[in-house]
């Protein structure tokens, strides 16, 4: 028995549906923005239809694209910066590998050991991220505490000396 096309019985062609889903996932566009863009091009699609397409096809796209995401290197650079989100100051944690590929990022209202630990756990759980050999961080006192807790729990298996405190490296824009 052959597998049925996921686009069977759809009013629009598959390439149109995938274009909408890709633009929504890739760019900071709302469903109404996409509706307006396509209306200018002569294609009338309601924003709720686009929402349904994203809900239906985004997980499938992610599942099919995930094997092609390249693995990262084992040398990490971790930093955080202070950003304003909806008139509230928050900490944006970020991690990149030695080649500059983004490992993960996370927004948190606090800058403490628990926040750093949660960020490390989230980054380690990402499927395309390799286990770290070296982690370069700034002199934030929360990182060694989080690192020791993760080692005690068995999430990180590297020597404590491999958590390097670097003062001049900034990986996130201020």
From TrEMBL:
Domain spans labelled Integrase catalytic: 63-174
InterPro entries membership: DDE_dom, Integrase_cat-core, IS_Transposase, Transpos_IS6
Residues in the signal sequence: none
Keywords linked to the UniProt accession: DNA recombination, DNA-binding, Transposition
Pfam families: DDE_Tnp_IS240
Matching PROSITE patterns: INTEGRASE (PS50994)
NCBIfam families: transpos_IS6 (NF033587)
Protein name: Integrase catalytic domain-containing protein
Organism of this sequence: Ktedonobacter robiniae
């Amino acid at each position: 028995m052959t597998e049925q096309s996921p686009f069977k019985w759809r009013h629009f062609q598959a390439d149109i549906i995938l274009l909408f889903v890709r633009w929504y996932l890739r760019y900071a566009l709302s469903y109404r923005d996409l509706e307006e863009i396509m209306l200018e091009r002569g294609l009338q699609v309601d924003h709720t239809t686009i929402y349904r397409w994203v809900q239906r096809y985004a997980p499938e796209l992610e599942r099919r694209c995930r094997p092609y995401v390249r693995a990262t290197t084992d040398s990490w650079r971790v930093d955080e910066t202070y950003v304003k989100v909806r008139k509230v100051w928050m900490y944006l944690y970020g991690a990149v590998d030695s080649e500059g590929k983004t490992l993960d990022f996370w927004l948190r209202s606090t800058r403490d050991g628990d926040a750093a630990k949660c960020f490390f756990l989230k980054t380690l759980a990402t499927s395309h991220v390799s286990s770290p050999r070296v982690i370069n961080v700034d002199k934030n006192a929360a990182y060694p505490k989080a690192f020791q807790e993760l080692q005690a729990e068995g999430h990180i298996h590297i020597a404590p000396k491999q958590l390097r405190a670097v003062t001049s490296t900034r990986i996130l824009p201020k």
